[in-house]
Amino acid sequence: MKVFFRKLGQGPEGMQSQRPLFILHGLFGLSDNWATIGKMLSEFFEVYLIDLRNHGNSPHSDEWTYGAMAEDINQLIEDVRGQRADGRNLKFILMGHSLGGKVAMQFASMYPEQLEKLIVVDMAPKDYPGDQFDFIEKLLSVNLAEMKSRKEAETELTAIIKDWATVQLLLKNIQWIPHSLTPFPKERGIEQPQILSWKFNLKVIAENQNKIGETFNIKNKIDTPTLFIRGEKSKYILDEDITEIKKIFSNPEFKTIEGAGHWVHADKPSEFKEEVKKFTL
Predict the structure, then answer these.
(1) In whole angstroms, what is the distance from residue 236 CA to residue 257 CA?
(2) CA–CA separation, 150 vs 128, rounded Å?
C-alpha cells in the first residue's frame, strides 16, 4: 500500500541527505503530530512524516497488522530509492512512537538490511492489553455525521474522555467529507452537503484492538543499533522490560527524559531532539 507522507527539508546545507529519517506516529495519530520535531530535525535529515495505513490521509484497509504496516514502509523506502540517483547508497533511519514504535521494531525484524539505525519512542516489544484504550467503544457511539460543527464534536468528546491531550489528538482526526459519493448537481449558490467524519478507520481499529496490543512476530535477533527513549512519567517501558529488550536487541541504548510522559516528543521537544541528534549524528 502506498501511504501518505509529508517530506521536510533536504538535510545539511540544502543537500539531499544520504540518511533519510522516517517518523511513524502512534495509535489514532497522524503525521501532523510530528510536525514540530520534524522541522527541528530537517536541518540534519531529509525527514518523512508518515501516516500509517488506516490513519491520517493514508488509505483504509481491513488488513491491519504489524507485518502489513512494515511492508507499507518498505514500499515507501523502495519508492524513495527509485526516485534518487544515489538510491542504492541511502541509509535509512526509522523512528516510531507507541504503535509506530512497534511497527518500527517489526520493520527492523523483517528488513534489517534497509536500516542504519532505529529509534523506538516509549514502547517495548511486549504485549499491551488491547482494552487499555477503553474509549474506543465510546468513540463508536459518537455519531459525527449528525453533528453540525467541530465545536459540537469537541463538546461530545470532552464529555466521554477526560484526558485533554487525547481529546486534542482526536480532534485533529476530524474532517469534513461530501455527504454522498453520488454526483451532486452543482447549481448556482448551492454547495455540496458536507458531514463530519473520522480520518482514521475506527471500525477496523476497534475490531483489531486486542490483536494490535500483542507483540509483533520477531523472526530473529535485531542487530540494528537501537535507541529506546522513554518518558520519566510514562509506564510503557518499565525497568524490568529492559532485560527482555536486551534479549531481542543486540545493540540497544536507553534514555529517559525527565518530566516527560508517553508523549515524550511533545512534552520535552528540545530534550527529545538532542537525544535523537546524539544517537544519529
Answers:
(1) 13
(2) 32
Q: Is 212 helix (H, G, I), strand (E, B) or coil?
A: helix
| Contact (Cβ atoms closer than 8 angstroms) between residue 169 and residue 56 | no
Q: What gap in Å lies between CA 64 and CA 207, rounded to an integer?
A: 10
Q: Are 190 and 196 in contact (CB under 8 A)?
A: no
> What is residue 103's three-state secondary structure?
helix
Planar angle of CA 80, 82, 87, nearest 5 degrees: 75
Q: Dig out the grid coordinates for 146 from the structure.
A: 449528525
pLDDT digits (tens, 9 = 90+) for 115-174: 999 999 999 999 887 555 577 888 998 999 999 999 999 999 999 888 888 899 999 999
Active site amino acids: 98, 262
Tens digits of per-residue pLDDT, 193-231?
Answer: 789 999 999 999 999 888 888 777 777 899 999 999 999
Distance between first and last Cα of the chain: 31
From residue 16, how far is each of 38, 77, 151 by CA, in Å? Answer: 15, 15, 42
**Alpha-carbon span 51 to 45, nearest angstrom:** 19
pLDDT tens-digit readout, 226-236 = 999 999 999 99
Residue 226 to residue 94: CA distance in whole angstroms: 10
